[in-house]
Q: What sequence folds into this?
């Protein structure tokens, strides 16, 4: 089977969760019999379309199943091509209107029309894939008129090998000391930025947010405010060249996000055996258990108590971390590969 696994704007999205998820899919499929092509265009670029036309060739590569990971014009062109030639079409829902809100300036206003577009776009699919049952239920509520199946984004444990060896380097680079409360990923208000900074103001621990943030006109007012006026014990590192440095330097992974489709960095923190503190939101109910592999909180006071508890109880941090490793192992790329192959076979045979 030949699968077109396509991510438009790939070069711009390599720092995003969508880019990471797509990388995980492709890595997971390496251990299967599926042949993967990543560009729909012969020669790897749409600039080659005129040359293909002159030669009387279809400018789109041959494939058995199309699997698109974004929602833009490139993905739409692939979707129309697949439908025209009666090829199975899989659309991967990494974007919902709920998780688009509170991301960029104006994203809240755009969320409602985006929902209408997503309902129409995803409804073209023969099968919609998404990272969680929570996201599946969201899409069904739009409603998306297509079969929907949840498959974990997975965690690439091999990419984290040796993270411990980066601890001193990254702590020295960002002047971190003592217990470090940290998170990893793009700096958005949706991911709990204000809660993160207000907790820092109320405690004496070091806080570090490893990840890029916008400083231009597209940045939300919260991102501009906190990155320009951080509490004394908060470090915004910007983009780091090796994520292992973040997981090596940090001690307690704090993720007070307001909405997620899954949260790959949480799985990465768990794979590194870190104690994890999460906001108690529906998506985390299906993956993690409070007191077993994480602590879940609903209010800032609960977050503060959880951090204080972990700071004074290293045995609890260790126990949560050990259980978290076992949880992360359930999201292996091998398992992701098996479920993707099953999805491709089912959609090809009309079993969805």
A:
């Amino acid at each position: 089977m030949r699968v077109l696994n396509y991510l438009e704007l790939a070069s711009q999205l390599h720092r995003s969760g969508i880019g990471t998820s797509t990388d995980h899919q492709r890595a997971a499929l390496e251990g299967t019999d599926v042949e993967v092509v990543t560009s729909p265009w012969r020669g790897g670029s749409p600039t080659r379309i005129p040359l293909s036309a002159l030669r009387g060739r279809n400018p789109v590569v041959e494939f058995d199943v199309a699997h698109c990971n974004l929602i833009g014009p490139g993905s739409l062109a692939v979707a129309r091509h697949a439908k025209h030639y009666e090829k199975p079409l899989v659309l991967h829902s990494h974007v919902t209107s709920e998780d688009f809100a509170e991301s960029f300036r104006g994203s809240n206003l755009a969320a409602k029309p985006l929902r209408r577009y997503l309902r129409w776009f995803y409804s073209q699919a023969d099968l919609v894939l998404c990272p969680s049952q929570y996201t599946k239920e969201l899409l069904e509520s739009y409603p998306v008129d297509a079969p929907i199946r949840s498959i974990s984004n997975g965690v690439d444990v091999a990419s984290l090998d040796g993270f411990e060896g980066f601890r001193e380097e990254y702590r020295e680079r960002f002047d971190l000391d003592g217990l470090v409360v940290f998170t990893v990923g793009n700096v958005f208000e949706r991911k709990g930025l204000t809660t993160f900074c207000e907790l820092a103001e109320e405690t004496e621990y070091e806080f570090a947010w490893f990840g890029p943030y916008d400083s231009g006109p597209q940045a939300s007012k919260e991102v501009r405010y906190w990155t320009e006026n951080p509490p004394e014990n908060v470090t915004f590192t910007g983009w780091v060249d090796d994520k292992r440095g973040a997981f090596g330097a940090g001690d307690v992974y704090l993720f007070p996000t307001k909405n997620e489709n899954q949260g790959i960095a949480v799985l990465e923190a768990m794979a590194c055996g870190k104690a994890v503190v999460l906001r108690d939101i529906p998506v985390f109910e299906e993956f993690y258990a409070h007191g077993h592999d994480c602590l879940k909180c609903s209010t800032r006071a609960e977050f503060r108590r959880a951090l204080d508890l972990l700071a004074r109880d290293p045995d609890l941090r260790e126990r949560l971390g050990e259980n978290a490793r076992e949880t992360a192992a359930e999201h292996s790329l091998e398992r992701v590969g098996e479920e993707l192959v099953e999805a491709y076979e089912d959609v090809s045979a009309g079993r969805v």
The mean pLDDT is 93.
